[in-house]
C-alpha cells in the first residue's frame, strides 16, 4: 500500500517534522470521563468537553499523533481504504487504556476486550 499523500492530512503534522520536545499533559478523569487537561509546561488548563477535545486535537496534531490508515470491510462486501485523523481521540483512548490497566484486573480486561470486538 502506498503512503497517503502529505496534502491529505489537515489536522496533523507529519511525525517526521513534529517537535522533538514532548509536551507533558495531565488529564483528569471523573467516573471515566475526562474533565480537565493541564499542560504541565505552560500551566494552561482546559475544561469542558469541547474545549478539552479541541485542545487535545491541537496539541496532538502538532506532534503528529492520531493518524490512522486502515483497510476497512464494507457492508456490501468490498474493501476500502480509510485515512482518518483524530489526535484528541487517540490521546484520550490511550490514556483511558492506561487507567484501565491500573483499575481492572487481567480477567476483566480480557472480557472487556472480547466484548469490544463484537
Overview of this protein structure:
- With 118 residues, the protein is of the alpha+beta class.
- The chain is built from three helices and five strands; from the N terminus they run βββαββαα.
- It has helices at 49-62, 87-103, 106-116; strands at residues 25-30, 33-39, 45-47, 67-73, 79-85.
- The strands form two sheets. It has a three-stranded antiparallel beta sheet, with helices on one face. The chain has a two-stranded antiparallel sheet with strand order 4-5.
Low-confidence runs (pLDDT<50, min 5 residues)?
none
Please count the helical segments: 3
Give the spatial strand order of the biggest sheet.
Answer: 1-2-3
Q: Write the H/E string, N to C.
A: EEEHEEHH
In which range does the helix fraction lie? 25-40%
What's the β-strand tally? 5
Task: Briefly characterize the structure.
This protein is α+β, with helices and mostly antiparallel strands and 118 residues long. The protein contains three helices and five strands. The strands form two sheets. A three-stranded antiparallel sheet has the order 1-2-3, covered by helices on one side. The protein has a two-stranded antiparallel sheet with strand order 4-5.
